[in-house]
Write a structure and sequence with these properties.
With 62 residues, the protein is mostly helical. The chain is 55% helix and 0% strand. The protein has 4 helices and no strands.
Length: 62
């Protein structure tokens, strides 16, 4: 079992990030630059990328 589960050190901006993603145009790539363009520059915000990747992988398996 993989013990390297992605997590967010702070979820303070989680709701704002998810709202911004829903309102944003589809990016060429979802990465740090995309988050920065939406105004999320904190290193804590970057962890959402790994969390969402894991979420999508889990959804595809079901």
């Amino acid at each position: 079992m993989d013990t390297d589960v992605p997590r967010m050190p702070s979820v303070k901006n989680l709701h704002s990030i998810l709202d911004a993603i829903q309102k944003a145009a589809v990016p060429d790539a979802f990465g740090i630059d995309f988050l920065k363009d939406m105004g999320f520059t904190s290193s804590n915000d970057r962890s959402i990328i790994k969390v969402l990747k894991l979420s999508f992988k889990f959804e595809l398996r079901q």
